[in-house]
């Protein structure tokens, strides 16, 4: 019988278990989310796999329903539980309300679940932060982030995991109306953001997009390579321009 | 446990109740209401459905007692080009005794949702008030009004937990939401139907007769008011368990309005004078 709380307050008002969970998140591989005008983009850093390991078994970007998907940073096993509960809730909502969930609703559900685990007997908080993206019925694109404490916020663009701070600073400088003017530009912004912190370029990036009224689409490595090459060309052209002006 | 054995109730009580019970953290919410709340909990060892079945279903009842669960009333609702018409009578009866002629059989859940009541007055009033509570909570949590299909689904899910236990409720949930006008029929078996025209209660056959002969989708507003009123009136004229006044509502894009409340006696004189 579990009747002892594990997550308790410290004298200065901290929940240390929650803060330690946030540390676990910071050790996970980076994930970035971008909200465009007609597209939402999720990008993750692919961890290198062992020689004998099948590459495609670890997926960090998962669909929750036809119109919502999420990426996470942190403990993969914890994420699996949260994702399963979210998927069940998406279908339960469709059954009882006869409408698909809004992105905010499923985010709120996940956040409530996480909060309950910070205030339950014998349980520790989930060690993941999630980036939840999708489109609502009325066509509005959404991006939300949740963290182990159970709070959630809406974002235009955000990053979680290792080097999240660097990526977020990059996004703060580079997320402009021009940068998200087209679907392609939004995708390139996500790639550029990840390239800041990922070693050896396109091979270690996995990217997925959702367009309005379309299911999640994972970009193939060929497409990624093409885009990375485009970005590198643009960068070189910028550098040349700057050299000329100085 | 030894104490349970001594008291003789270990047959009913599940002994591993402590460990088997899922912690509330892990319970999945499938919008299952009320069945777990203490005020409607069933005593251990009693199965209400089994207890009630011989009284209701069998020919001769139990010791000469047979319970007839009938929906004594007339209510109707239909969709047309200008929204949804809702009309009900106002008689509450207990067998052949008329308890009141002024019973409100339409519950105003919110400015865009109405529920009608037929069957057991107690069941209808209670469950539709619980539905109103849930609709309000939905609006607070999700910052938008609940859809008609969701509201009717919640009600159906609530009562299906009590299937066979003697609830008697036939209701129509009418409203206007993002998808336009909505009309659903929900009853005590958990049946939920979407449709353009329903009538419930002991007088429903009379109401259907009048409605079916005069109904068109492109009725004008005055024509629809007249049709709804007439249908209820004729049902109250022939059905002993319907009467009192005809309460009429019109559900429009901007919400519902209460059109009229007329005594069936006055309606009788109006309609029968027309014939002259």
From TrEMBL, chain A:
InterPro entries: Ntn_hydrolases_N, Proteasome_alpha, Proteasome_alpha-type, Proteasome_asu_N, Proteasome_sua/b. GO terms for cellular component: cytosol; nucleus; proteasome core complex, alpha-subunit complex. It is found in: Cytoplasm; Nucleus. The keyword Nucleus applies. Pfam families: Proteasome, Proteasome_A_N. Keywords: Cytoplasm, Nucleus, Proteasome. GO terms for biological process: ubiquitin-dependent protein catabolic process. Residues 2-24 form the Proteasome alpha-type subunits domain. Belongs to the peptidase T1A family. The 26S proteasome consists of a 20S proteasome core and two 19S regulatory subunits. This is Proteasome subunit alpha type. It comes from Hucho hucho (huchen).
Automatic annotation (TrEMBL), chain B:
It is found in: Cytoplasm; Nucleus. Transmembrane segments: none annotated. The active site is at residue 73. One of its GO terms (cellular component) is proteasome core complex. GO terms for biological process: fat cell differentiation; immune system process; proteolysis involved in protein catabolic process. The keyword Protease applies. It catalyses: Cleavage of peptide bonds with very broad specificity. GO terms for molecular function: threonine-type endopeptidase activity. Pfam families: Proteasome. Keywords: Cytoplasm, Differentiation, Hydrolase, Immunity, Nucleus, Protease, Proteasome, Threonine protease, Zymogen. Component of the proteasome complex. The proteasome is a multicatalytic proteinase complex which is characterized by its ability to cleave peptides with Arg, Phe, Tyr, Leu, and Glu adjacent to the leaving group at neutral or slightly basic pH. The proteasome has an ATP-dependent proteolytic activity. This subunit is involved in antigen processing to generate class I binding peptides. Component of the proteasome, a multicatalytic proteinase complex which is characterized by its ability to cleave peptides with Arg, Phe, Tyr, Leu, and Glu adjacent to the leaving group at neutral or slightly basic pH. The proteasome has an ATP-dependent proteolytic activity. This is Proteasome subunit beta. It comes from Hucho hucho (huchen).
